[in-house]
Amino acid sequence: MRYSPTQVNLATLPADADLKVLPKYVDRQRAAALVTHYFFGVSARSLERWPLAGKVINGRLIVPLADVFRIARERMDAAPAIKSGPATASRAD
Question: What is the pTM of this model?
Fold first, then answer.
């Protein structure tokens, strides 16, 4: 089963996500791969701590990809912006 544009909140999906090729439901391994591709690096083990509700099919938790993307977007939006680069000395000793 694939997504249709009426089933998904498009604001939670990445701009380059193609709804025609993404599955509607995924297991943790596939979800981790898609979040890593579209958002940030995450492991399937880390997704065990995310508040995902789904169904167990053939011994695997299957969750809606829209929920996975929604939580990933929330985590990206909640993350603080920081500067990176060479550290400068705040005081001279």
Answer: 0.73
